[in-house]
Amino acid sequence: MNSMKWFATSMATLTLAFTLAGSVAAQQPRPKVPIGTIEKIEAPPEPRDTSIATPTVKASLRYGIGETVPVASLEVLLLDQDLSTILSKAGLHGESGLDELHSYAVYRVYPDAEHAEFSKAARAAIEPHIIARVTTNEAGQAQFATVPAGAYKVVAVTKTRTGLAIWNEFIKVTAGVTTITLDHNNVELAN
């Protein structure tokens, strides 16, 4: 068999094989996909910051030029909401011309029988919103136990030489150690 005849025979066999294979494949049923069908795909959840933070507190007040005094025995709260909002949602409104926050501060620092009901209700409303609490030492310092990194309200109230001081600050606690400074620069009210 010469090479030309062999090539022609091979090509004819190859063509026949492809034709037969194509007709067998054409006879296979194809799965029907409904037209216009949309498959719902769930979006992946937003990543959460699962970092752990260990906030520390440094509290002091300035009395006059150059006299900065540490605030000892200061209870500092990390709240998940603004204190005024918590008290307002609990139906507690300011008294004696004061708003909710200032009423809470005055009755906390200067408790009396006349306002005991407000103080008790305020403590009950605040308790579920406390993420963490610490009390400062004689140097005006304290360290919270670990908390999730995130945004919080830090609340603290103390007596001063001439009245009281209130801290009601929004803070962002980041992973690791975050220092929360409570002093004359961010005190809301100091008399």
Please report the number of helical segments: 4
Low-pLDDT runs of 5+ residues are 6-21
Q: Kindly state the mean pLDDT as a whole number?
A: 80
- Strand percentage lies at 25-35%
Give the number of DSSP strands.
10
Indicate the structural class: alpha+beta
Rg (C-alpha, Å): 36 Å
Q: What general form does the structure show? A: globular
Q: What is the H/E order?
A: HEEEHHHEEEEEEE
Distance between the termini: 117 Å
**Main sheet properties:** 5 strands, mixed
Assign a percent range to the helix content: 25-40%
Identify the notable features of this structure and list them briefly:
single chain; 191 residues; 5-stranded mixed sheet; 5-stranded antiparallel sheet; 4 helices
Note down, in words, how this protein is organized.
Strands 1, 2, 5, 6 and 9 form a 5-stranded mixed sheet that branches. Strands 4-3-7-8-10 form a 5-stranded antiparallel sheet, covered by helices on one side. The chain contains 4 helices and 10 strands, in the order αβββαααβββββββ. The radius of gyration is 36 Å and the shape is globular. The protein has helices at about 5-25, 85-90, 100-110, 115-125, and strands spanning about 50-60, 70, 75-80, 130-135, 140-145, 145-150, 150-160, 165-175, 175-180, 190. A hairpin with a 5-residue loop joins strand 1 and strand 2. It has about 190 residues and is an alpha+beta fold.
Helix and strand topology:
Blueprint: H1 3-27, E1 52-62, E2 68-70, E3 75-79, H2 83-89, H3 100-109, H4 116-126, E4 130-135, E5 141-143, E6 147-148, E7 150-159, E8 164-173, E9 176-182, E10 189-190
Parallel strand pairs: 1-9
Antiparallel strand pairs: 1-2, 1-5, 1-6, 3-4, 3-7, 7-8, 8-10
